[in-house]
Design goal:
182 residues; alpha+beta; PH-domain like; 3 helices; 8 strands
Length: 182
Amino acid sequence: MLHFSPVGQGGDLVVGSCQSRLQMECVDTGESGSFVLIARRNSSLTRGGRNFVVGSLVSISAIISLSFAYLGAWMVLPFAGAEMLVVYWAFRYIARHAGDFESISIDGGSVTIERWEMGKVSRFEFNRYWARLVMQPAVRHGRDMLALRSHGRQVEFGRHLTEEQRREAARAIKARLNVHYG
């Protein structure tokens, strides 16, 4: 479901049958015709929470491996060290991508898709009247693909969303574009 809020106000506005969902935010200005949909990754831990989890895992692993080393099984130490390094790298990857998001904005005659990945921005612009919304079904246990297509160029949107959220986003975008599924 979509989270709608009017531009310039901090409150939540539920439009139609849409309900609040943390991964998507919609801003619909109504009269001016502007529309923005933001899709974010599901980041359940804050930076402090991630640090606490990594610290706890490293501490527990260190206590256990040092206990075994004290009892004479010193070969546990290199494997515990490798395990701690992998956990650190995994959480570092999660932290680097925690702020990633995609946005689609429809304003006047243009449609803009922006992707923010690890601080880098990719921006794609389409003519609103020529852009076509494409919702392709999943192939072999994959996920449905939501994309905008125009003049031989196609840009996927909603990589951070669930299937249900992707379909809800497609309905919201289609209503504002007046385009048909391809």
